[in-house]
Amino acid sequence: MNICCSTVRTGQKGAKMSSQERSAPRRRNPRGQGQVLKAQLVDAAAKLLSTLDQPETLTLRQVAREVGVAPASIYSHFPDLSALIQHVLRLRYEELARLMDQAAESAPDPLVDLVARCAAYVRWGVGQPGHYRTLFGGRMPDDLVPGSAHGAGAELLEAVVTSLAAAAEGERRQPSAEQQWQAGLMLWTALHGLVSLYNDHGNIPWPPLDDLIADLLSLHTARPAAEIAALLPQYGDDPGLAPDSI
Asked: Residue 66: is its pLDDT beyond 70?
């Protein structure tokens, strides 16, 4: 599929205008408002990454078309497509980290901290499936998005590892640092699996999301699911949305 330009049949009389040609020209930003265009480019790239069937095929031309500017206008803000995508990834990781930190900021004990962080993670992933796929879908080629671009994701995992280890303190047998890391990694794997399957297979008669979160954390903390459920923060009527989600 050619995603860079529209095509017309040769020899066809009165060729139709492309959607780009039909759209009204974009007004130039006033002098000194280049940051406005930068924000628009970032928003457009984030939208396309979260909605394209094949986000790995994103091009600068598509981003420019979404905003209504010439592709050359992008280079005054981002040197290439990779830099733009990495900027989007950083913003999305910051958003998710902020929500998890806010959810746990008033936690009175480690277990509540863990429950709040994990619930915020799952709810954001379910409420923002396109953005979640952008971060954790793993479809971007390495030459476009290097592994270092996901460094903030490692920080999220570290927060879960630390929280789970703190919630496990007081047990008769204290796990080693390596065992704590593995336990946190397995918990994150379970959280990711829950979000991914919930988003991709909505036709399954899933139990309520709160029940799934409680059961999952019960397995990883050896606490009763009812105890976990009682600690889950409430976000209103829609279980798939966390506060301040974008």
From this structure: yes
Residues 6+ apart with CB under 8 A from 50: 128, 129, 130, 131, 133, 134
* Buried/exposed code over 70-102 (b: 16+ C-beta within 10 A; e: otherwise): eeebbeebbeebbebbbbbbebbbebbbebbee
Predicted TM-score (pTM) of this structure: 0.80
Do residues 124 and 99 touch, judged by C-beta distance below 8 A?
A: yes
Taking CA 186 as the corner, what is the angle to CA 229 and CA 236, rounded to the nearest 5 degrees?
30
Question: Is the separation of the CB atoms in 4 and 61 below 8 Å?
Answer: yes
Instruction: Specify whether 99 is located in the same domain as 155.
Output: yes
Task: Please check the confidence at residue 166 and state whether its pLDDT lies above 50.
Answer: yes
Q: Could you tell me the pLDDT band of residue 172, with boundaries at 50, 70 and 90?
A: low
| Domain tally, the chain | 2
Shared domain for 195 and 117, answered yes or no, is yes
Whether residue 162 is contained in a domain is answered as yes
Q: Do 64 and 169 share a domain, yes or no? A: no
Residue range 155-183: mean pLDDT, rounded:
86
Q: What is the CATH number of the domain that holds 65?
A: 1.10.10.60
> What tokens appear for 27 in the block?
């007004």
141-175 in b/e burial notation, b at 16+ Cβ within 10 A? eeeebeeebbebbeebbebbbbbbbebbeeeeeee
